[in-house]
Amino acid sequence: MTDTTIVLQAKGITKHFPGVLANDKVDFDLHKGEIHALLGENGAGKTTLMNILYGLYRPDAGEVLVNDNPMELNSTRDAISHGIGMVHQHFMLIPVFSVTENIMLGSETDHRSRGAGILPPLDRLERKTVAAKVRELSQKYGLEVDPDAIVGDLPVGVQQRVEIVKALYRKASILILDEPTAVLTPQEAEDLTRIMSELTKQGVSIIFITHKLKEVLAIADRITVMRGGKVVGTTTPAGTSEHQLAAMMVGREVILTVEKEAAQPREDVLKTEGLVVHDKRGLEAVRGVSFNVREGEILGIAGVQGNGQTELVEALTGLIPSQSGHVFLSGKDLTNQTPRALTETGMAHIPEDRQRHGLVMSYTVVDNMVLCDYYHPPYSRHGVIQPQVLEDNAVKLIEDYDVRTPSPYNPAGKLSGGNQQKVIVARELSRPVKLLIANQPTRGLDVGSIEYIHKEIIAMRDRGVAVLLISAELDEITALSDRIAVMYRGQIVTTVDAGKVSREQLGLWMAGGHPETT
Question: Which CATH number, 1.10.8.60, 3.30.420.10, 3.30.420.40, 3.40.50.300, labels domain 268-510?
Answer without folding.
Answer: 3.40.50.300
